[in-house]
Amino acid sequence: MTEWADVLKRIQSGDISGTADLLLALDARGKKEMAETLRGYMAERARHGWDWLGPRAEIGALRLAGAVCLGGAAAVTSWLFRRDLEPWPFEQTADDDMVRVLRERPEPWRVDLARRIVARLRIPTHSGDVSHWGIAARLLRETGAAPPESDALVIGWLLSFPWEFPRDDMAPAVAKDPLFPHLAPRIWEAEGLGMALADFQVETIADLVEMGRLERGAVLDGIVGRLLRDGPSAARSVTGMHERMAPTLEESRERATDYVRLLPAGPVFVAEVALAQVRRLDAAGLLPGELFAEAVEALAFRPESRLGTTLITWLGEVARRNPERADAGLKALAVLFARDVLTLQHRAARLALKLSAHAGDAARAAIAEAAAALPPELRDKVAAAYGAAPASPPASAAPLTASRPPASAAPVGSAEELGHEFIATAGTHGPEQFERLLAGFVQWAHRDPHSLREALQPWWDKDRRWFSPRSHALVLGDRLQPAHELSHVAIAFISPDDARQLRAAIAEAGRRVALMPPPDRMIHERIREVMALFEAGHTCPELLATPTSGTGHVDPDVLLGRMERLEAAGLAPLHADFRQALLRLPRSVDDAVVARAARLTSHAGQELCQWLREGGIPDPQVRCEITGDPTAYVNALIEPSGGHLPKLIDELCQQGPGREGDYSFSVSWWPAIMPSHCEVTAAHMVSALLACQEFTAGGVTALTALSHADGPVGVAMAYAMAIGMSHRLPIERAAAADALLTLAARGRSPSAEIGAAIASLTRHGLVKPNRVATVLNDAVQAGAHTEVWEVIAEALRALLPAPGDRPDRPLRGLADLIQAGSRAAQLSEARAEIPALAALAARGGSSRLVLEARRLHTLISP
Amino acid sequence: MAVAVQEYSYARSSGLDVASGRLDLATSGGMTRRGLVARPRFFSGLLTRAAPSAAGLLAVADVAKARYDRPRSAAGWAASRDPVVTCNGDRLRFESFSMCGGVYARLDLLRPALDGEIVDLGTTNVDVNARLREALARLGGSDPLHLAVGADELVVTTLDGAVVEKKVPLPDRWIRGLAEVQVIASRFDLRAELGAAEAVTFLRGLPMRGVLWMAPAGRTLRVSTRPGAICLPGPGRLATMLPLLRFARALRVYGPVTAPVPGLPTSSAWELELPGMRYVIMLSPDPRRGFSGEGAVLDHLASGGAETAASDAELIGALLCFQPRLEADELQEESGLDRDRVRAALTRLGTSGRVGYDLAEAAHFHRELPYDAARVASANPRLRAALKLADEGAVRFTAPDAAEVGERRVRLTPAGATCTCPWWVDYRGTRGPCKHVLAAQRVRNLIGAGA
Predict the structure, then answer these.
(1) Which of B171, B191, B220 is the last residue of a domain?
(2) In whole angstroms, what is the distance from residue A682 CA to residue A454 CA?
(3) Less packed terminus of chain A by CB within 10 Å, N or C?
(4) Are residues B81 and B150 in the same domain?
(5) Which residue range(s) make up the domain with B440?
(6) Chain A contact for B407, CB < 8 A?
(7) Which of A225-234, B1-10, B369-378, B425-434 has the highest mean pLDDT?
(8) Are residues B233 and B161 part of one domain?
(9) B67 contacts in A (CB within 8 Å)?
């Protein structure tokens, strides 16, 4: 139709008034037809995929077109609220044009439309505008209808103040708004008020109150009621409104109970506002006694320490003015004694001592009882003034229990089970499952290749469609991903040709295996070995290195059995597999085992026998050095202790400086590689942990596994623990706490070394003492107080400035460390001499650092 | 997804007059001892400890309108579902379930807190409106408060036209979640108990987000990574407990005794002991998902013996009389069924919303949720999908305990079933059987029954 073509041209050019003129000229039937055409056009738009990103210029005109042509109010409402016609914020919404074209409709119809639109208004999620509010408001204003109840309408109205009313003369303009008498009373009950009260709105409401258009008492009641109702989710802007209203003393007095009831539960800014009013009333003598008692009790219970200090100041003033209120104040102070913040405890105790003359019996008893939680020197002073506290049971330490070592995984029962499990867990398994599956592959490829092939076939059929050697190779990169690379073993078994292509592609992509950390290289070698075995079409009855215990150890008898079977079949063991098996032997074996080993005849058998006889390799020497330039870094140096080491093992036992940025995706695989030499593993892990200290995949959980390993514990373990304890995330630090507890329970905790490590790392800015302190606190609570005390004592000796030095700026977080030390020292009843601590304690002042130092010094002095 | 619309009809709004100390809670229709009553009256008397009771009611109401999966969304502005009150004779229970379906809260007012006349036993909704919340927050001090749950009939007839009606949408998954909570809770055990001071420090020191594992450390709990620890998924969801801390006497933690699959989060329950009352919160295993998909109900519905369970449930259901504790021994005696069948029947009644589980008492209690939970249980989407698979003939048994369902392989071992679908890999059976396992089980039952 020519008409439609004209209309379409105007719509597409965004000519809103032109469209309006054209459409208004239609008669009723024409409009109905146009409505159908419009719907068709929208459907076509949707089919073209222009739902939300279509030509924006059309949107305004389309909305208008629908408003003119559609028949009922419900239809127009649905049209305006269509998702694909949604006007973006700050887009020209042509509200005025819309209202102009709607004027020709009868008034009841427009009222109905306004009501329907209001019913569909929604409060925005974040800040923003209430969409479609403009239309609703204009219709309501024009028709003068009473708006239905809608929070979104109120919020939209408030948000519109800066746009709809002149900025320099807002309050009178708002007062003249037809919506004002309906919406103003409901401001304080609308949900989402917090986001709508910006400066404009606050000032305008204040001006309206001054002008007398809003009743002051009602507004104050509304604000206070709103704060009460919201409770913990109160909005800051509402308190801002309250402050702007600046209630007079009389108004404050009327609402005294409400202010006191606001103190316990809300956010801290609400409590501060309420507290200011309560203090004001009290200063004027207008606060009744019970309310005062309730207020101080509520304040004392709040967690924020700045409110605690304000409370103490206030109580000091009150005590000077009205000594008879000292009782209630002392009960509140008793609550503060139990807080863990040393500065608060000191100030509260000082005030309590000052008020001791005015204390009643109940208050006296409360203070005396609560004093048990104070540090010793305060406790004595308080006891002198208030009477000795009833003997409190000494803080009992929790028994230290060793955590269970990780459970060992059972071998795979059948080829089908292997296939099932492999398919189900492809790519997501951890170290134990990896060993299990690898062993299963080798075993069942030998025993029952047919069923294994059948079991894996569905996976391969699906995977083959996407398999491309080149893309697989590119994805791998230079870091090992053992969970992922196990699938290469499966590919090698099912389709050796593809595996060969894969190997070639990896070589072509230039994967630099030499860049992998040595433990990763060991795993890599083992996987490649098995792949090569399958590619050549051979099989092997079983792997030697499969662990028999959760810590990664292989039982020597079991290993000998495996070797004997291999010898009987006349097969040589796989290279890397054999080396790994050697590394997994325990540190000492029975003579009977050695005798059995002596009966092995093959070359590998004899090597095994020698290994068993000598007790494995001599422990390599491990040192940790921190270098300063260019950036602080920890070098964990490993040197073999002499003797000839077999290949692969020698790589593990040697590490030089300068492996910056060494990280690995598979740190949790490492503890099981050398379970009898945990120091060497720790040395490898140091740089990986350091690199990942701020990242989510921190790898600290590997420390927990490492704590179950055997072997001498020394510097590297200490450094690894110190770095792990300073991880950003509490979950990772919890793993470090678990590791420390396990070490302590097994009696192997290198406490002094950990303390020294913490000190040197802190000096170079590589760990943060406050994070370490949280781990140490947890460990103390779980029962490892003796070990933690040794750690902290050593750390403090090295961290604190020596007595003769000029006091320099203290390191951040030191106070937390000293606090943890106090807890540990108290439980373990330790006595020690730390001159630097004595010097710190002798300093003047009452900063937290000095107070903590004094407390610790008092605790540990003999 | 079907969304029923729940209509509440109250004689008037609930109100609290702080000056005279009267709390009137309006009730809507529900089941009582005498049958269905339009506006029952349960209790009229004093609450001996007003401040903690008011704070507890506010906490329950806060959970009802909370939406923890999308904390910043404006959906909290939508109408929330009113809490459910049950009068069990010696206690009043107020229950609510969050909008996201992941948090269940209950406040039990026990005998020491109530001092008055129990008029009737039953379950209904109570009206909680903005005025009431404001007034509850205004309450404090130590004066007792007069509580009336439901109004005197005489009073009702003298009011003219002050009826409050609300219509709230009630999605099926919300009702299903409420039923799951009871089944999951019945498998919990007490895992830890903290004293008042430790509870305060512990709850205040929790981060807001993440899935935490807690292990006992001395007298409190610490974050740990050990298996077998207590799971706290989304600690921010315990925020409604914070205003109650000033009254707290102890904190008890309940959870499954052993994590079925170590490493996967589980749900847990946290109970705060207040003077004369208890406030308990149950959390779903992940803040972003509710209880409805946990499949505890399905474990039970699809198992063998489901047919007898239905009739057993009816039998036991007839013995229920709003008792605060359903003792298994008594039910065994009265019904003549054995222990396992009684337990299965109670689980079934839980899935249809007719019993709840009280962790502190370690027993079920009777209450009739005013929702049509039975219809919803049978319309479980996973069950429907499984039945569809079974009817289409997609299940092919290749061995006595292995089947192929579509392109997934299912194994039904006595220790538990396994499947190769990605959903199973992610959850490993902690959320009940997947639809393939259900389909295979059903076909096997049919074969077994037919043979």
Answers:
(1) B171
(2) 42
(3) C
(4) yes
(5) 380-450
(6) yes
(7) A225-234
(8) no
(9) none
Assigned domain for B27 exists? yes
Of B134, B226, B243, the CB nearest to A264: B243
**Tally of CB atoms within 10 A around B379:** 14
Tokens read off for A257: 């109970």
Cβ distance A231 to B137 less than 8 Å, yes or no, reads yes
Domain coordinates of chain A in residue numbers?
1-92, 290-392, 415-614, 661-860
**Closest residue to B217, CB basis, from A398, A420, A731:** A398
Q: What residue has token string 């044009």? A: A97
Q: In this predicted model, what pLDDT tens digit does every residue of A539-556 receive, in sequence order?
A: 888 899 999 988 889 999
Indicate whether B48 belongs to any domain: yes
* CA pair distance A799, A816, nearest whole angstrom: 13
In chain B, what residues touch A226 (CB-CB under 8 Å)? 134
Same domain (yes/no): B144, B124: yes
From the list A598, A557, A601, A600, the residue with the least C-alpha distance to A581 is A557
Same domain assignment for residues B105 and B241: no
pLDDT single digits (tens) A428-470: 778 888 888 999 999 998 988 888 888 888 788 877 777 777 7
Q: Which residue of B has its CA nearest to A295?
A: B141
Taking the mean position of all CA atoms in its chain, how far away is CA A99? 50
Residues B157 and B228 in one domain: no
**DSSP secondary structure string, B137-167?**
HH--SS--EEEEES--HHHHHHS-S--EEEE
pLDDT score for B185:
92
CA distance A856 to A715: 27
CB-CB neighbors (< 8 A) of A828 in chain B: none
Helix spans in A390-448 (H): 415-424, 431-447
Do the beta carbons of residue B353 and residue B175 sit within 8 Å?
Answer: yes
Query: Does any domain span residue B310?
Result: no
Closest to B398 (Cα-Cα) out of A455, A456, A453? A455
Would you call B384 an interface residue with chain A, using a CB distance cutoff of 8 Å? no
ipTM for the complex shown: 0.86
Last residue of a domain, one of B150, B171, B192: B171
| Domains identified in chain B, total number | 3
Helix, strand, coil percentages, rounded to 5, for chain B: 35, 30, 35
Contact B141/A at CB under 8 A: yes
Is the distance from CB of B351 to CB of B378 less than 8 angstroms? no
Two tokens, residue A76: 């127009």
- Please tell me whether residues B145 and B207 are part of one structural domain: no
Domain co-membership, B14 together with B126: yes
Could you tell me where the DSSP H helices lie in B352-434? 373-378, 381-392, 422-427
Q: Which positions ≥6 away from A199 have C-beta within 8 Å?
A: none
Query: What's the distance, Cα to Cα, between the start and end of chain B in Å?
Result: 37
Nearest to B321 by CA among B110, B70, B35: B35
- Does residue B302 lie within any of the structural domains? no
3-class secondary structure, B208: coil
Alpha helices (H) along B220-372? 296-301, 306-319, 328-335, 339-351
How far apart are the C-alpha atoms of B162 and B155, rounded to whole Å?
A: 12
Out of B74, B138, B217, whose CB is closest to A124? B74
- For residue B264, give the CATH number of its domain: 3.10.150
Tokens of A139: 């219709």
Q: What is the DSSP letter of A212?
A: T
**Cβ contacts of residue A218 below 8 Å, gap of 6+?**
A185
Same domain, B123 and B162: yes
* B222 has a chain A CB within 8 A of its CB: yes
* Nearest Cα to Cα of residue A193 among A242, A156, A244, A148: A156
pLDDT tens digit string along A175-226? 999 999 999 999 998 888 888 899 999 999 999 999 999 999 999 999 999 9
